[in-house]
Structure formats: C-alpha cells, structure tokens
Design a protein that fits this description.
It is built from four helices and ten strands. The chain has 161 residues and is of the alpha/beta class.
Length: 161
C-alpha cells in the first residue's frame, strides 16, 4: 500500500512560493505550523529544496528526489522519481514539501493540500499550480495576522473532491 500524499506549501497572492531557491518572506508562525504538522511523518522534496534547507529536518523521515544517482546526504533517503519516493514512503501520510516541479508532479496524486495563503505580493520565480475548485474543496480556513510583517495569512486545508 502506498502513502497518502499531502502537499504542504506557503503561497503569496499570485501562487508564488520561492525566489532564487529561498522563501521570499519570513513568517515564523508558518514555520511553526509546518513543524507541528510534519513532525513524526515522512517528508518528500526535490534536491534543490533540500539544498535550500541544508539538513534533514529533525523528527521527520526525509526522502529527496534527485536525478543524480551519486547524490547522498547523511540522514536522507534518495529516490530517482516521485513514484519511487511514494513507494519508499510506504503506508501512512507523506508530506510533499516542494519545490515547484515536485508539486506539479504530485498534485494529481495528492488527496489533501495544506496551504498557508499569504495575502501579499512578493518577488517570486517559483510558483505553486493553481488550485482547481472542480477538483479541490476547501474544508477549513484558519485566518491570522502577523503584526511583525503587517500581513494577513490563513492556514487552509483542501480535500480532493
């Protein structure tokens, strides 16, 4: 049995998720939410996303997708494709954490999306695919406001219809 895939992502108003392989914003509340949500689970990411983090995240099983068969990092499992990563993840829930190309490939396989929607405009060169309301149903929205950033944001959960 394969893992149930959940995509977890933070996006700005135009679905931007990154710029030059970094997050375009610093939103500590989102990082804390990400940590609470993914701790104890398997996380799946592309190699560039892993490089931007720089290390395996504590208390999570990390699977990195890379086309380079020689790439290795201590504390990380590697897969040559999303399909192999899903197979490696086994049963239970696995969180896809980026980047853009991995999100595009994983979206048709996912059963749930957890999106931090940031109500702001940021310079971005990587984007999350548009969420099609005929495929995805919003099942919860938890709005917040960051005084430090002066931005509103919401933790939104979508379930596949």
């Amino acid at each position: 049995m394969s893992a149930q895939l959940t995509l977890i992502v933070a996006t700005e108003r135009h679905n931007g998720i990154g710029v030059r392989n970094t997050l375009p914003w610093r939103l500590p509340e989102d990082l804390a939410f990400f940590k609470r949500t993914t701790t104890g689970h398997t996380i799946v990411m592309g190699r560039k996303t892993f490089d931007s983090i720089g290390r395996p995240l504590p208390n999570r099983r990390s699977i990195v997708i890379t086309r380079n068969p020689d790439w290795q990092h201590e504390g990380v499992e590697t897969a040559s494709s999303l399909a192999q990563a899903v197979e490696l993840a086994g049963s239970g829930e696995a969180f896809v954490i980026g980047g853009a190309q991995i999100y595009i490939e994983a979206l048709p396989l996912a059963s749930r999306l957890i999106v931090t929607e940031i109500a702001g405009d940021f310079e971005c060169d990587a984007f999350f695919p548009a969420i099609d309301s005929s495929t995805w149903k919003e099942v919860s929205r938890d709005p917040h406001h960051s005084e430090a950033l002066g931005l509103s944001y919401a933790f939104v959960i979508y379930q596949r219809r």
